[in-house]
Design goal:
With about 260 residues, the protein is an all-alpha fold. Helices cover about 65% and strands about 0% of the residues.
């Protein structure tokens, strides 16, 4: 989760075959005021970011300059800087984290779905305290942009919120559930297993229509599930103290027998 979430919020992010994180356009971060984004971009482009830590002097310069320009940063900029620090496994100074978090709260409504997910993931690594204004703001904003989430985003959102010691509110759960119902017919075995795993972390199972959509799709792709995906799906039903029924139980039994 720590490796996956921060990447999703970086515009144009992709992985090389070796697993390195690159950006498709240098303009994504080099437009940051004072060259802060450009410096972070150079660090991100290293093949092994965790093993190539910048010198303390460079971090001090970045901290000082970022604190100075933080009040004027765009939503895209502040999200990408926080995500970059998390991706690099670097901890900004308390003063910088406070400045960036305050700015992020102020512009959260301008953040995209991917930036929202990426920043939630960054909070799990940067130590945003549960109940902090930033976590609250991101959780509420996730309700508004949930219609743009894919199955990975849904799983990442729920897992990040859980890691931050929170329970998603009823409105967010409904928004995520509605999105699941919409995308369920297109989910593959991997997406279904991730969705079941994410919702299994909630106190209650998904609402009836959502569960029905997931059950129908699972019965259609059960034969494509590997052992881990099958176990994840069955574990979700165990957590909810429910038993698969109808076509779903038949499909799962056939897969187990096979």
């Amino acid at each position: 989760l720590h490796d996956a979430l921060p990447i999703s919020g970086v515009s144009g992010a992709r992985r090389t075959p070796s697993g390195a994180l690159l950006l498709s356009s240098r303009q994504d971060l080099t437009q940051v005021q004072g060259g802060v984004g450009g410096a972070l971009l150079e660090l991100l482009e290293k093949k092994e970011p965790a093993a190539s830590q910048p010198a303390d002097s460079l971090l001090s310069v970045l901290d000082a300059r970022a604190k100075e320009v933080a009040p004027d940063m765009s939503a895209h900029t502040v999200a990408n800087i926080l995500i970059a620090y998390a991706r690099l496994r670097l901890q900004p100074s308390n003063e910088l984290l406070e400045a960036l978090s305050t700015r992020a709260v102020g512009v959260v409504d301008e953040m995209s779905a991917s930036e929202t997910i990426g920043l939630l993931g960054a909070c799990t690594r940067l130590g945003a305290a549960p109940g902090s204004q930033l976590v609250d703001a991101l959780t509420h904003h996730a309700e508004k942009v949930a219609s743009a989430f894919d199955e990975g985003d849904i799983a990442h959102a729920l897992e990040a919120i859980a890691m931050l010691g929170r329970q998603p509110g009823e409105t967010l759960v409904k928004a995520l559930g509605s999105r699941v119902q919409t995308i369920a017919p297109k989910l593959d075995a991997t997406g279904l297993a991730a969705t079941f795993s994410a919702f299994a972390k909630l106190p209650q199972p998904p609402a009836g229509p959502i569960m029905s959509s997931l059950a129908v799709r699972t019965s259609q792709v059960a034969q494509d599930m590997n052992a881990d995906q099958l176990v994840t799906t069955m574990d979700a039903f165990t957590t909810w103290q429910m038993k698969p029924t109808g076509p779903l139980v038949n499909a799962l039994q056939e897969k187990i027998a096979y």
